[in-house]
Amino acid sequence: MTQATRRGILAVITVIVLLALGAGLAFAVGDALGIRTEPAAQMQPAAAIVPDVADPVAPPDFVSLDVPATVRVGVAIDELLDAVADAPTREGEGSLTVVQSAAAGDEAADGYTLEGDAASLRIVSDSETATVRAIYDLAAQVRAARPLADLLGAHAPSALPLRMTDLGAVGVAPDPAEWESGTDYSHASKAFADVFQPEAPYIDEAALAESYRDFDEFLRHSLANGFNALAFPGFVEFVTFDDAPGGPVYADGDDHRDKALALREAFAPFWERADELGVQVFLRTDMLALTGPLEHYLTDRFGSLDTENPEFWDVYTAGLDELYDAAPALDGVLIRIGEAGPVYDVGGWDYYSALEVTTVDAVRTMLGAFTGQAEASDREVIFRTWSVGVGAVGDMHTNPESYEAVLGGIDSPALIVSTKYTLGDFYTWLPLNDTLEQGAQRRIVELQSRREFENFGAFPNDLGAEYQWALQQILAANDQLEGIWVWTQDGGPWRAGPMTLYLKAGFWQLYELNTQVAASLAQNPDVDVADVTADWAREWFSDDSETVEAIVDAMTNSREAIAQGMYIEQFAAQRVFAIGLEPPPMMWIFEWDILTGDSAVLDVLYAIARDATGGDIAQAIEGGDDAVAAAERMRGLVEQTDASTWRSPELREAFVSTLDYEVDVLRLLTAYRAMILHQGEWHDTLSPDAYAAWDADRAAFEQLAAVHLDRYEGDIDHPAFNVTAAQLGVDRAERDQVMAWIARGLLALAAAWVLIGILAARTRLVRRPGAAAARGTWLGSTRPWRARESTLGMLELDRWLLLIVPAALLVATRAVQTSFLSWTHLAVVLGAWLMFAVVVRICIRRRSPWPVIAAVGGVVVLRCILTLFALSFSGPGGYWFAFWTEPVLRTLYIAVAFALFVWVFVAAGWALAAQVGARRGAGYVLAGVGAGLLVPAVVIGAIGLETALTLWNDEMGLLPWGLARILGITTYLEIPSATPWYAAGLGAALLVIGVLLALPWRRQRAAASGTD
């Protein structure tokens, strides 16, 4: 066997190994992407209906009240009398008497009987709680303009005794300047920001008094709605940790302790007022909740934030003991472990949270400590299952097996488990959360009134039928359900949407409906939700029966407008999985108000919609038209009402304006939907008709976007949607066809270059100018051991073509691949190649560089041909479409691309071996690779990985544009921020190893002297 044959066999084996490794990498990439779908069992609420709306009934003037003289009853009576005073007319006089049993009973039981007649009402009850419920029911009946006599008879105790709210907008200043930009995605409410002061005495007393009045109003309103508990933000802010084991935590003179005492003194009256009115207060906190000194104390004592160590939690339970002793009005603590970090922090205050409770053992240890403390102190612990993909407990919220692994066997009577009713976040199209149907623990259900993902409650959105169906299903399956937690205001960023602040600013009455219907269902799951909607319309908008009926009729269309307009049903109605997570059903609007323009989401969305419709994309597009039609019906119904019948011209204008806004937004979304789906269809089918449809849709979208921005940009009541990412996607898409033609031209030139090289290797064509260079690149890339031979006697022109052709082709290919829009990508890629070339050239020194140039340049040409072929069908958009949606093509491409990439360096080393030997040739290559990795990694590390990835992604449009602005690419994908420095370390190691291998060793120096 000749040496040439042996080398050929070795080369073939090497290529096969590289292809196998590339295939392995491709399968790993596919596994990491994990893109798949499965059917989702949809909720099945009853269809919304319009009830018969009776004429309004005027209430009597209550001239006689014989009721217990307690604070709780007095506040309830205030609400009843206010309701009567707010009624347009009153008819007759009435009396109200309370007959309350003196025997000790269950104070929490709220069943009662109403006797007498409309003029002489008598409440018969066994507890103060039942008495005040009866009075609030009478007040609600007055506000709904219904006959008080309709309430006569026995009223069963509430089905769900715990009815909790968030803190609404208490303490939040309605400052329009903070909403104008629409780009503040912080989740911090900034509640009581005017109260907190950085310097002693730390509290602004005037602002505190204003916040107290705010709080009292919220309490009164929530009690009238039927709630009896609230979640109050904070925990470590109120604790000195003086009695912490091994403490104290704060050193003498540390102002954290003084702040804790000042804050506790300031807010204790808030908690006492709630307790006085029969409202339970739970401190709402993330775990871990930290301050700088507290974190140092914990790490010094335990070596780290060791959340699996039972003694670690003794610090926090000691803090609770201290707090409950100082503030007896507190009823417990509400804990979340799944979200934390800077997005929730308030600037200037050293109170923050960290995602550290991420294992099953850590959660169980934590709950063991907190429930033990709660039992001993006669308090309760509410634990949220909202784990959102973090650590080993990441799918506890949606996976029954994970739920059981975390909570199975924990049966403390002090533990209440809180879970969102949807199988994920508060989106339409998600199934009912089946983890609510299991477990031995006490349970409450989380509901959101101001739906953050559906434009923060800016659109009509009657969730009554869905709430009712969900609660009835859970109650039938789990007798441990005992309550609800309704978010009247909270959820998502506070200042990225409309400036609606509960009870104080904006059109908050619109989503008050969901708060009222949730409370009504918690008391009676069989309540007629259509009547609740009518009562809401009567209370806030009009006494006129025709107007109320028109509003209720409009609200029956509200769910269709949102479900079809803000979601693409064919995608949203399925469970989608990717990169180990379950993306939400509204990925095309990424996080609240950003129309995403990235290929990963939009290509996968198209493919799923295509498969769901059998390729009939028109079905998916029609949903947008249906939504617009529903919104237009709503607007028409409200507009045709008699303006004189409304309680307030401002509220009528707000209703009509929000419907104008909804119609405008849904038209914009419909055009965008058609554009992205036709774009996907073109990449998928290469149909000229699909391209023409996309082009028409693009023009329509750009026109509607311009009108939308002109009308709503800067409007804090109706904020414009963010179309920046969408426009970036349009800019890239507009270049796809041109890029495809450029790729075809470059592909033809590259193929001709290779063909000339093949022919020149066997014919007299080699004598033509440039042919020798083409021959050199062909031989160098396929038989690198002949690279030196192929460059001997080569003319100067041919030598420069050896360098210029591959280099120019590389630059052009990368430019086309990025649509000439990502100079960051080009800088990194070409910078790495430049460093490789410089180091190898330095190593070669006086030896001829042309053999290695021929080898490397030849493989670069082949690698570019592969990329250009992929780009030639429908440009970069088609390239990425295939990557995200075609597993077979992705696997083939990655396998070949990886093999060619590594073959570049194998060929370089092989070519160099003929000049300096195998060891030193490998050293030159390793040194070049190390430098090519080291320098870009250092630059990226210096800039910051998140910053660099954000810039690159903005130019490439692969991942959602909003990802960096809201969550952070590195956070979402769990990429360590130190990754560039790890890469730099690897590059440095390769560089050192390469240099050591490249040095002439003693034994060889003499033999090598004089050779070249």
UniProtKB/TrEMBL annotation:
Entry keywords, A to Z: Membrane, Transmembrane, Transmembrane helix
Superkingdom per UniProt: Bacteria
Transmembrane segments: 741-761, 800-817, 823-844, 851-871, 891-912, 924-945, 981-999
InterPro entries: GH (IPR017853)
SUPFAM superfamilies for this protein: (Trans)glycosidases
Protein name in the entry: Glycosyl hydrolase family 67 C-terminal domain-containing protein
Organism of provenance: Microbacterium allomyrinae
Lineage summary: Bacteria, Bacillati, Actinomycetota, Actinomycetes, Micrococcales
